[in-house]
Amino acid sequence: MNNLKTTLLLAALTGLLMAIGGLFGGRSGVGIMLIVSLAMNLGSYWFSDKLVLRMYSAREITAEQGPDLFKLVANLAHRANLPMPRVYVIDSDVPNAFATGRSPQYGVVAVTTGIMKTLSYDELSGVIAHELAHIKNRDTLISTVVASIAGVITWIAHMAQWSAIFGMGRSNEDDNGGGLLGTLFTIVLAPIAATLIQLGISRSREYMADEIGGAISNNPLALASALEKIDYYAKHKVLPASTPSTSHLFIINPLSGTGQWMTNLFSTHPATAERVARLREQARNR
């Protein structure tokens, strides 16, 4: 099912890029953006996980470098009947975590140094189990593909915005610049469209990963407690290098404390309070 979602998502984002190309370059613009989008789709499938890890300066660790974390991930992966994922650490005091990789065989779990200092052993187990649930459900491919392509769309929007500021845009809708309509579409509608696509694939997956993660760790209440702690820190300090195009990867939106109404309106995560309530209900029903 997620393979179908990934295909539909890539097609939707390809169409969006081609629409932008058509507004600014006519038929030739459509052709150019089609070629660009095909190259992006291929690159996103094979290299999106590496790009995201590099963006956050994540470093891979071995069993010798981080024995406690490595053993915890290995035990939970075995319990979840998954291959051992690679383990990465992000040097940041802000607690958070995400998973990536195009399949369970290429799974990656990344955590910040802050999360290991902030959470108890049981709480960290719940977080790791949540990320393993994303790998088990094959959510990670679609998540990282979205991150890379949505990032490019946002970059195009920023380029169009600067072009308009410095007078490089055109006011005549018949010229190749796409006119005022094309500029407004790229600056405003394209990022919103990309965010809406992220929204459509993200919120339900978080609920499911919470439920499966609670089962894998055998402690839904510990995961609930971890979510509350991570959410508290996210509202008071932003994770360095975090962007709207990659925020959906994390267990808690790292931009939830920015105060930007647009970021909160199109949040890729369900409300933490609702997630905690569901986990507590799961614990009661065990």
Automatic annotation (TrEMBL):
Binds 1 zinc ion per subunit. Its cofactor is Zn(2+). Residues 67-282 form the Peptidase M48 domain. One of its GO terms (biological process) is proteolysis. Its EC number is 3.4.24.-. Zn(2+) binds at H130, H134, E206. One of its GO terms (molecular function) is zinc ion binding. Belongs to the peptidase M48B family. This is Protease HtpX homolog. The lineage of its organism: Bacteria, Bacillati, Bacillota, Negativicutes, Selenomonadales. The gene is htpX.
